[in-house]
Amino acid sequence: MQVEITNDYLPTYEALASKVRLRIIQLLSTSKMNIKELATELQLSSAIVTMHVKKLEAANIVKTERLGNKKIVSLKVDKIEVNFPKKIFQAFDTIKTAIPIGHYTNYQIEPTCGLATLTDFIGDVDYPKYFMDPRRMDAQLLWFGKGFLEYQTPNYLESDNCLEMIELSLEISSEFPFANDNWPSDITFSLNNIELGTWTSPGDFADVRGKLTPSWYPDNQNQYGLLKTIRIYPHGTYLEGDLISDVKLSDIPIDIDRWTIRIEVKDDAQHIGGCSIFGKGFGNYPQDIVLKLFYS
């Protein structure tokens, strides 16, 4: 589950701002419990425990189910990630290009795989041939078990522009049939045939519906990804502020007429857990694959 520093997520922060509710989360991390069991463990009345559970439920942290005359409580998420507002680099001019996720120019993938638009799946799932269907241009979600996708976009830098930083961002996760929150996958990113580094996605998420995911799309399939930002500086390449490789800005060929972005799950990866990419109409973030150039 991802939350942001906005008023929309105040119920989540309020739900966590309680010793009792934190203890409830700790207890539920080992097994499901009913209200009476929680009350006994916490040495509180069932009415008070019910009030605390309702706050956690409103924040999408737990869920409750009726089993006979008992209300069973279980965790709905196993991780909460807080996204702080992005730091804005005011000192440089920028060139921003948004690449729709269906506009790949080369691919080689293996099942499980598929594509979806805002209204339906494109062809049958698990058939790589549909990745060449003309409707792929309208894709807002795609996934594959192994292999790569490549995207190309024009290089709009002028000869007198001094490149200071490159930023690549997208919403992405692992790929598991239906979904699995605990399914690591090593996803490698390259730019202009230079490998930038590998990020291990923790899972393929369906604990809650994506904020943008269309209503027709099934609840039990991947709903959203994690927004990941890679930045290439003169001294190295970073993902979310952590160094992922020693690739420097000077290592990237820029005297060319196009940028080539590759997203890949390699045959020899330690965790071959697939890849799902979310466009601006699916998941939690209204954006495509974004390449941003900072220059002076």
Automatic annotation (TrEMBL):
- This protein's UniProt keywords: DNA-binding, Transcription, Transcription regulation
Q: Which domain of life does this protein belong to?
A: Bacteria
* Entries under SMART domains matching the protein: HTH_ARSR
Pfam families xref list: HTH_5
Tell me the SUPFAM superfamilies matching this sequence.
Winged helix' DNA-binding domain
Q: Does the keyword 4Fe-4S apply?
A: no
Domain HTH arsR-type as annotated: residue spans: 1-95
List the Gene Ontology MF annotations in alphabetical order: DNA binding; DNA-binding transcription factor activity
InterPro entries attached to this UniProt entry:
ArsR-like_HTH, HTH_ArsR_DNA-bd_dom, HTH_MetalResp_TranReg, UCP030050_HTH, WH-like_DNA-bd_sf, WH_DNA-bd_sf
Protein name, entry field = Transcriptional regulator
Its taxonomic placement starts with:
Bacteria, Bacillati, Bacillota, Bacilli, Lactobacillales
